[in-house]
Amino acid sequence: MSVLVNKDSKVIVQGFTGSEGTFHAGQMIEFGTNVVGGVTPGKGGQTHLDKPVFNTVQDAVDKVEANVSIIFVPPAFAADAIMEAANAGIKVIICITEGIPVNDMIKAKEYIAAYDCTLIGPNCPGVITAGEAKVGIMPGFVFEKGSVGIVSKSGTLTYEAADQVVKAGLGITTAIGIGGDPIIGTTTKEAVELLMNDPDTKGIVMIGEIGGNLEAKAAKWIKENGTKPVVGFIAGETAPAGRTMGHAGAIVGGADDTAQAKKKILRESGVHVVDSPAKIGEKMAELLS
């Protein structure tokens, strides 16, 4: 089993012929992802990376039955790309773009609520199901098939956690990079819930950071509904108060937004919190032994 993407996913790339879209689509194809084409307005009818190019997402859905989209579109147009994908019937929309105006994302999130779709991101590394499909920008060689799911706000810590879990002999089911913007599609709680309900996932790594309340909401859900061990790490312990740290959502707005406060909430909810990212793999191995 897996969540969100697998070997049967029919993936298209919005912004297919741009430099980012080209590079990462090539990496995804090399990984074995079923990329069925891409979208670049005005270039429909051409081929790129030996795949068809379409003018619209609707064309891609109609002609190659696309059901997953990954977005490499500049910030000014990315919210429109998200809405276009939802409107065309895409089920899983993964937006990599960083720097989308918050006002645009508010409108896009409200718009897609009327559709049966899941948005991951924006400003995220994507989703990878080990051995099946990589829909994102993660280094695929790190992810080997196994029994641990990952939910993370941080791209690089996703790869770091995966590497440790693999080296601990456990491997990965699906890793979900939810993104670090103030307005994102899928929350930490929703991603944890997907993995908690996946029969092949035996343990979950949850990586959060300062700012916002996503981790606290996830912790409350885990306390009430959790059936598998969760290892937690919160990034940003030494971040100066009041400063945005890389991710637009990583700014401490109140007492509960600090790393210390979040760790306390997680521990009280039964999450096994590690104080260093270097301990993630060994802690999960200990819990699953």
TrEMBL record:
Gene Ontology MF terms in the entry: nucleotide binding; succinate-CoA ligase (ADP-forming) activity; succinate-CoA ligase (GDP-forming) activity
Keywords: Ligase, Nucleotide-binding, Tricarboxylic acid cycle
Domain CoA-binding: 4-100
Record: residues binding substrate: 159
Enzyme active site: 247
Enzyme Commission no: 6.2.1.5
Binding annotation for CoA: 17-20, 43, 96-98
Superkingdom of this protein's organism: Bacteria
Catalyzed reactions per annotation: succinate + ATP + CoA = succinyl-CoA + ADP + phosphate; GTP + succinate + CoA = succinyl-CoA + GDP + phosphate
Family per similarity comment: Belongs to the succinate/malate CoA ligase alpha subunit family.
Role according to the record: Succinyl-CoA synthetase functions in the citric acid cycle (TCA), coupling the hydrolysis of succinyl-CoA to the synthesis of either ATP or GTP and thus represents the only step of substrate-level phosphorylation in the TCA. The alpha subunit of the enzyme binds the substrates coenzyme A and phosphate, while succinate binding and nucleotide specificity is provided by the beta subunit.
Protein name in UniProt: Succinate--CoA ligase [ADP-forming] subunit alpha
The organism's taxonomic lineage, starting at the top: Bacteria, Pseudomonadati, Bacteroidota, Flavobacteriia, Flavobacteriales
